[in-house]
Amino acid sequence: MPSVAGVDVPNWCLAGAAVLTPAAIYAYLLRVSRQQREFFAETPQPKETSLIFGGLESADLVNNPEKGLAAMKQFYKELGNSWGIRLPKWLFPNTQFLFLTADPVIISEIMSKKDIFHSRPKGLAFDTTIPLGLLSLRAEGPHSRWALHRRLASPLFSDSFLLGYSEQVQEKAKLMQFILNERIKAAKAEAAECDLQHCLKLLTLDVIGSIGFGFNSKATMTYLPEDHPQALSEAEKTAELEFLQASEVMFFETHQRTTEPWMMRYLPHRFMRWRWAKGVMDKRINAVLVSGKESSSGAKLNMLKALKDAQEGGQKMSKAEVTDEILTLLAAGHETTGHTTSWALYEVARHPEVQAKMLAEVSTVDLETLPLTQVQSLLPYSWMTWQEALRLHPTVPFIPRQAEVDTTLGGKYNLTAGCVVSVSQFMLAVNEEMWGPDAASFVPERMEKGYPEMHLPFGFGGRTCIGKRLAYVEGVYLLAFLVKNFSSRIGDDAPVPSPRVTVTQSAAEGIHLMISSR
Ligand code: HEM
């Protein structure tokens, strides 16, 4: 007689179990599916053929942004500014219902229902990759670890800290100036074509490396011409680019894993890449942590040191929490700012009148010594230019929230607890009712009044971006610095940047501009 867990079981029992188990699973799935159908019976649904992912694909935002945006507008026109779709539960275990909206009325309802829509969805890949950082921590009461982290990390973005980061940002900006000038010299022409998206991504990585954990990374140096006397050796280059690639894997590939069935995430080729990336990043942070030398870039202020020392009534972050928090700030805090700034420079290059106005403003300011805390007051037009670029090219195009309990939106969309609502910044940006008939044009002056309440490029509620102030001052400073030192225009053969949408929005082929020194 066969034995199961040490108990003898007759063969007929095993045969019965073999038949009954699949039958029970099938019956369970049928019941869940019937319950879902009943629940959503009253909820407006798009045609079954317009699955959200099918829809977004047909919008082709990646390969043909203009056509893509038009298709997306058409999509919204047919389905309304808000619509929902049932997703196959086996594929999205935590996302029973995805509701996409660009309707200001519904968005304000979501914002006002703070007790219901306060949290980003559970089960995102960051949960398994950086589980102890702000992007992942979920429970949100005042005594939760998330709330403690938020309180301990908030001072990192206060005036005194921004002031403390200023010198490091100025130093890196000067490094970028040197490298771009060397590229212009190497081109032996008045102007050189540069991929500003790539360059700013390297630069913002160096900035966050320095202010984040006192690491003097030199990723930007990889952008020197290959045969330059100061160009990095192949080994140094590999080490710098390894860090960049690791941060991309952490942020993008881990994010892509979320849209895959659970099992796929752990296929060796995916899992090993993440392990590798985490290893590269942990090694750098640990080198600083273990050596006790918080700063390899001089004794400057940095987030790691501040978080290690931060405490509240004797409560501190553990070493693992500090490491995950630093990884989170690195991942969330460099290319978001870099991409926005490169989109802004692209718009400046396309609009000579904006460039001239910015130049008039930046010429009167000594940027080499400008503290970050004075960026907004001394560079108001540059500020509006960066802000307008973030409107038209929202770096984080979707802001998702998971319903805590069953609820209804707009009086007709039924959502069960666990449903995900995603606010589409993309569509909000071209909403003519909100911005007027010139919504699709780049007009920095419209930012005199700032963003209306419903435009949320940094999210909303308690979960709003903690790094918003740093993003603004660093981004506007770098934009102003570039405009002051270089004139830029779109090259005749430059590819038209098309949005590549992952967790953030970038230009698929980079942002190539012809730049010359002023
Ligand atoms: C242009 C630049 C940036 C944009 C557009 C941006 C946008 C966002 C958005 C939309 C969210 C989600 C908010 C929500 O769910 O309501 C977020 C969260 C976050 N961001 Fe940013 N961000 C930027 C720069 C930064 C910087 C510079 C840092 C830090 C160095 C940072 C750190 C974070 C963190 C830690 C979170 C999670 C906050 C939490 O859940 O408590 N971000 N960001």
From TrEMBL:
Keywords: Heme, Iron, Membrane, Metal-binding, Monooxygenase, Oxidoreductase, Transmembrane, Transmembrane helix. The chain crosses the membrane at residues 12-30. Its cofactor is heme. GO terms for molecular function: heme binding; iron ion binding; monooxygenase activity; oxidoreductase activity, acting on paired donors, with incorporation or reduction of molecular oxygen. It holds the Pfam family p450. The keyword Transmembrane helix applies. PROSITE patterns: CYTOCHROME_P450. Heme binds at residue 465. The keyword Secreted does not apply. Belongs to the cytochrome P450 family. This is Cytochrome P450. The lineage of its organism: Eukaryota, Sar, Alveolata, Dinophyceae, Suessiales.
